[in-house]
Amino acid sequence: MVCKILLGICCGGSSRYRHHREDDDAPVAAPAAVAKEKPATEKPKTTAAAPAKANGKSEKLMDLLNLAEWSESEADATATRRKVEALERLKRVVRDLQVEEKGKRTEAATEARLLAKEDSEARGTLAMLGAIPPLVGMLDDFIGDDDSQIAALYALLNLGIGNDVNKEAIVKAGAVHKMLKLIDSPESLNPAVSEAIVANFLGLSALDSNKPIIGSSGAIPLLVKTLQNFDNPSGSQAKQDALRALYNLSIFPSNISFIMESDLIPFMLNALGDMEVSERILSILGNVVSTPEGRKAISAVRDAFTVLVDVLNWNDSPGCQEKASYILMVMAHKAYGDRHAMIEAGMVSALLELTLLGSTLAQKRASRILECLRVDKGKQVSESFVGNLGGTVSAPICGSSSSSAMNPNTGFAECLEVEEDMMSEEKKAVKQLVQQSLQNNMRKIVKRANLPQDFVPFHFKSLTATSTSKSLPF
């Protein structure tokens, strides 16, 4: 390129010299006469050379511009040629995927895997050229050939990266059924093939339209089995992929019933404590608790609330605290019978501590749970209070006097006054009981946090405020 520019400059100089010679108005035959009449001949020459010099610069600029345009056109031609070559390569790969020869198909699948790995345009082009059906066909055409199956599985995985159209096309081509059939084959499955299948379920389950198809296909037990298989040499990556795939599937409500059919809930609650998987487990439980059968399954697990309350004390993991408090908040709000079990698990003191030391979101959720428990406790005190009154006072006491008997309206008013007095006494008892309980727990927490004894958090008063709201805004 530099040589071409220098050549253009040189050509521009020669053309300028030629232009100067042709435009000279002085006769060529009489240079001496001009010299005798005008000794100072340099001045006219200088005047005549000025426009020639300007014209020379213009020609030089034009030569450079022409050279740049030629370079751009050459670059465009090169880019077009490369695109044509890339398209021809993709066409050749798809043709090789459709041949009968096993070795050639495996090589084509490996090449498709590499081409689709980081090139989004290649993913779309390969799919449009028809690469997906033959790749899916390789899953059951080459039973026992681990290399061919792995090449096909990872080619499909890469084709679906960031491309929802391809993910839908892979499922429609029957990949889910064929992968499950491959898992259920009587021959021992290579762990690398199993890992590739789990990775494909993770990618395909990210698309909402695929979630019900995969969930009802029987893939959930496979993912649970992968999660429980600690001896799998593929290690933690396969477990993480299985957890993330189960999370994607648990987003769709109809898949919760399939999750209930497995022993996933007890396993996940028992696995809490492993920080590598705890946050994702809590995310799945957060989706499960959104359905009545999910809440029932969690309540049925022994020590479920004890485990979840223990998570609230993980001050070094705010994400786990927020997710555990969400699960407990939904269960406290929806399941009246679970609140007593939560209190027995020591949740009140853990929640009060969370309102002091937790994240903003965890503090809000802890406050909502305490409000639910406070309302529940008030109902229990009210029932006990009414029961004691019923044992000592007979019902006909209202309006039993002769004046009441003569004036039924007066007796009815007296009954209302008694009921109002009873309700006011109940409210006072409830309020005093709740305040005493909260204050005692707060003193313990302040002492544990090494805070001044007269410390009172700004939002503590809101915990004892009268409220009947049961909404869950957080």
Q: Ranges with pLDDT <50 over ≥5 residues?
A: 5-9, 13-48, 380-423, 463-474
Cα shape? flat
Mean pLDDT over the full residue set:
76
Identify the quaternary structure here.
single chain
Structural class: mainly alpha
Give me the strand/helix succession.
HHHHHHHHHHHHHHHHHHHHHHHHH
Tally of strands: 0
Radius of gyration: 41 Å
DSSP strand (E) fraction? under 5%
Largest sheet: none
Number of helices: 25
> End-to-end distance, in Å?
65 Å
Pfam families: ARM_PUB (PF25598)
ARM repeats: 218-250
Biased composition (Basic and acidic residues): 35-45
Keywords: Repeat
Q: Would you mind describing this structure in some detail?
A:
The protein is mainly alpha-helical and 474 residues long. It has 25 helices and no strands. The protein has helices at residues 2-22, 31-37, 42-97, 102-118, 120-129, 132-141, 146-159, 164-172, 175-183, 191-204, 211-217, 219-228, 236-250, 256-261, 264-271, 278-288, 292-300, 304-311, 318-334, 338-344, 347-357, 360-392, 402-406, 408-448, 460-463. The longest helix has 56 residues, at 42-97. It is flat and about 95 Å long. 30% of the residues are buried.
Describe the protein's topology.
Blueprint: H1 2-22, H2 31-37, H3 42-97, H4 102-118, H5 120-129, H6 132-141, H7 146-159, H8 164-172, H9 175-183, H10 191-204, H11 211-217, H12 219-228, H13 236-250, H14 256-261, H15 264-271, H16 278-288, H17 292-300, H18 304-311, H19 318-334, H20 338-344, H21 347-357, H22 360-392, H23 402-406, H24 408-448, H25 460-463
Helix pairs in contact: 1-3, 3-4, 3-5, 4-5, 4-7, 6-7, 6-9, 7-10, 10-13, 12-13, 13-16, 15-16, 16-19, 18-19, 19-22, 21-22, 21-24, 22-24
